[in-house]
Design goal:
- By secondary structure, the protein is an alpha+beta fold.
- The chain has four helices and four strands, in the order αααββαββ.
- The chain has one domain.
Length: about 180
C-alpha cells in the first residue's frame, strides 16, 4: 500500500504540475502576440516599480520575457518567449529556457526584464549562439509586500534584471542554469 500511495502522490503531483504549466497564457506565439504580451508586462513593471522607467531610458536595449512558466517535481524546467527592444521597438525575438535539479515541487509563472546597460554587452548578447547570464548580472526579485532595490549602486552592472509578477507556488531549492536563444519570427 505504501508504494501505491507514493505512486498516487507522484501521479497527482505530475498532473498538477502539467496543468499549472498550461497557465493562463501561451508560451509560444507569433511576433504580434509576443509584442502584445511585452507591452502588458512593461506597463506592469513601470507601474509596480517606477524607478524601472529610468533604467529603461538609460539601457542600450531591454529583453522582456512576459510569461515564463516553471514547473517540476525534483527536476524542473522553465520556458518563455519575449522580445529584445532597442529604442522602444522590438528588433528580435528570444526564448528563455532553464532546467534545474533539486528538492522542488510545484509550478510558477513570472515575468522577466533584462536591461543591457552598455552597447558592448548588448552586442555580445545579440551575437552569441545561446547566451547564459554570468556574474556580471544583477537581479532584483519582487518580494511579497516589498519593493525591489534598484538604485545607483546597482546601475554599475552591465546587465540588470527584474523578476516580477510571480503567480503559483514552487517550493524548494535547486541549482539552475538559464539560456537565451534567438527565435526566427
Amino acid at each position: 500500500m505504501k508504494n501505491l500511495t507514493r505512486r498516487s502522490f507522484i501521479a497527482t503531483a505530475s498532473a498538477t504540475t502539467l496543468t499549472a504549466c498550461a497557465g493562463d497564457g501561451r508560451i509560444t506565439g507569433s511576433s504580434n502576440q509576443i509584442d502584445t504580451h511585452v507591452a502588458v508586462a512593461l506597463e506592469e513593471m513601470y507601474t509596480t516599480f517606477p524607478g524601472s522607467r529610468e533604467f529603461a531610458q538609460r539601457a542600450a536595449g531591454m529583453l522582456v520575457i512576459p510569461n515564463i512558466t516553471k514547473a517540476g517535481l525534483f527536476v524542473a524546467g522553465s520556458y518563455g518567449e519575449g522580445a529584445l527592444l532597442i529604442g522602444g521597438a522590438s528588433v528580435e525575438y528570444y526564448s528563455f529556457a532553464s532546467a534545474s535539479f533539486g528538492l522542488q515541487i510545484g509550478a510558477q509563472q513570472s515575468r522577466q526584464v533584462l536591461f543591457f546597460m552598455t552597447t558592448d554587452v548588448l552586442r555580445d548578447f545579440r551575437t552569441s549562439d545561446g547566451f547564459e547570464l554570468g556574474v556580471d548580472a544583477e537581479f532584483a526579485v519582487q518580494e511579497e509586500g516589498g519593493s525591489i532595490g534598484l538604485s545607483s549602486t546597482t546601475s554599475n552592472k552591465p546587465i540588470l534584471g527584474i523578476v516580477f509578477g510571480q503567480r503559483g507556488f514552487l517550493a524548494g531549492a535547486s541549482l539552475e542554469g538559464a539560456k537565451y536563444s534567438r527565435l526566427i519570427r
